[in-house]
Amino acid sequence: MGDMGIRFSKKQPGVQNPDSRNVWELADKVSTGKKWRNGIFFKSKTDLDTFISNSPAREFWLSGEMRAEDIRSIFRFLVMESILRKSKGQGGVEVLLFIRSTFFLDEVQSEVPFTDVKDQYCEVYTALNSLQQGSKTVGLDKLRSQLNDLTQDPVIKDDLSAVYADYMTAAAARINLENCILSIL
Description:
The protein contains nine helices and no strands. By secondary structure, the protein is mostly helical.
């Protein structure tokens, strides 16, 4: 009689890393292990996507649950905010400028479909735009805090969190099925 317990598959990083119990932890895990103080090494959304697809979030990123571009944008934003928290000085400014060019395209709407219950989007956009234009008067700590607040936006809590929970449930079911088949053999 075989072991019916869950064996964590190397093919499924989201499940292999049980400490990534939610999307915030998974986004943080994506940015772990790099030295972000010196800035970022990607210059486009495609570079960011490649970085994510080569990270511990690979299987989640490539899963059917992540096909919708809105959901992918939300996860990209979480990863970039996690990188921002780990960056310092000029590296942090570089991350902020990347966030501006990737997610805050105009005054009205973001690449990420924020609900923006605290009405911060316009203020964040204005600060990021000023930073992009070379202003030295931007309050970086306040801007970082506002971007962190946006990671708790209902669209992330409700939409992306639900997608990740569905992914984790399906991944655990696949592993349970694999373990059952292996125990019969």
